[in-house]
Amino acid sequence: MFESVQGLVDEHAQIQERLADPSVYQDQGLAKRLGRRGAELNAIVETYRRWLQLQEDLEAAREMAALDAEFAQEAKDIEEELPVLAEKLRRLLIPRDPNDGRDAILEVKGGEGGEEAALFAADLLRMYTRYAEARGWKVEFISSTDSDLGGYKDAQIAIKGEGSEPAEGVYAALKYEGGVHRVQRVPVTESQGRIHTSAAGVLVFPEVDEPEEIEIQQNDLKIDVYRSSGPGGQSVNTTDSAVRITHLPTGIVVAMQNEKSQLQNREAAMRVLRSRLLAHQQEQIDAANADVRHSQVRTMDRSERIRTYNFPENRIADHRTGYKSYNLDAVLNGELQPVIDSCIQMDEESRLAALGEED
């Protein structure tokens, strides 16, 4: 049982040896990748060693049980603990998303519903910001296009897991948030008190550690510059500082306009483009690999409606997992973890079931 774990134990030892070499840190990208993989293996190695130790303890306790009743009780306790530990190890061995340990770039976009959708997009951005702060993560504002009433037509933030275990990276938690979020409430623009339904889209991409990770040919880029604009379309800049970059092979388009400098907007756009290309590459790998079991709660269909926020009932419902609670006000204030946990649990269960089928 768990014979394959020894290879991971050996890999963990090799990584720790490399991380002890000061020369590794001359390449920060390499050091970060090694640290992320090492942290990912830590829990597996520690649990496996504990499982082996318990088996030895059980054998010793059984041998001594004939001489001392206390050892018989110890053997019984170990027999109860071993299956629990084995299940924990089995879950740790579920194939992971290779980007789980990364930081993330999160985008929100107002969808159907006009100004109300833009205001809801701002509510979602605030929810993610407060959730990140509660986790001890750092939030960096990248770009936004404001609406007339103070919402966001679109906005982008980077979330970095400073001080957190890389194995429990930002992307590992937030990747389930991608999709369409629907809101039901009385808009501030509604004079009759009628409940309206509108929506906002959320996109989550893994952050690229180093620019060199993603090779981008200059000939593959179409770069346009234009004047940035504010709410209602009015110009807020008299120079062509806004930048739109199109990656021709994939059709991915990124636009930035918040910085006054064209160079700064271009750097921000390239940062987001690299993250989108990293996600695109992983999608292609998954699609090409016939053995990959796709998550039931995280698909690449960004038009999928994943959640409803009902203000009159103070209710939040996740349509993928069946999660429902009546503390919407708390969730919007950053208490998002139970919702995310329901996604993680369902994802793990589906992956475990897939492993069982393969066995």
Order of helices and strands: HHHEHEEHEEEEEHEEEHH
Tell me what portion of residues adopts beta-strand conformation. 15-25%
Taking all Cα atoms into account, the compactness measure Rg is 24 Å
Identify low-pLDDT runs.
163-167
Q: What would you say the CATH architecture of the largest domain is?
A: 2-Layer Sandwich
Distance, first to last CA? 13 Å
What name does the CATH topology of the largest domain carry?
Alpha-Beta Plaits
Class of secondary structure makeup: alpha+beta
Largest sheet descriptor:
8 strands, mixed
Classified by CATH, the class of the largest domain is: Alpha Beta
Approximate shape: globular
Family: Belongs to the prokaryotic/mitochondrial release factor family.
Organism: Galactobacter valiniphilus
Modified residues (N5-methylglutamine): 234
Pfam family, one: PCRF
List its salient traits:
2 domains, 359 residues, globular, Alpha-Beta Plaits, 8-stranded mixed β-sheet, alpha+beta, 43% helix
Task: Describe the protein.
It holds the Pfam family PCRF. The protein is α+β, with helices and mostly antiparallel strands. It folds into two domains: 5-92; 104-288 and 300-350, 2-Layer Sandwich (Alpha-Beta Plaits). It is 43% helix and 20% strand. It has helices spanning 5-19, 28-65, 69-92, 115-134, 170-174, 262-288, 328-332, 337-358, and strands at residues 104-110, 138-146, 152-160, 179-185, 196-206, 221-226, 242-247, 252-256, 305-310, 315-318, 324-325. An eight-stranded mixed beta sheet has the order 2-3-1-5-4-9-10-11. A three-stranded antiparallel beta sheet has the order 6-7-8, covered by helices on one side. The two termini are 13 Å apart.
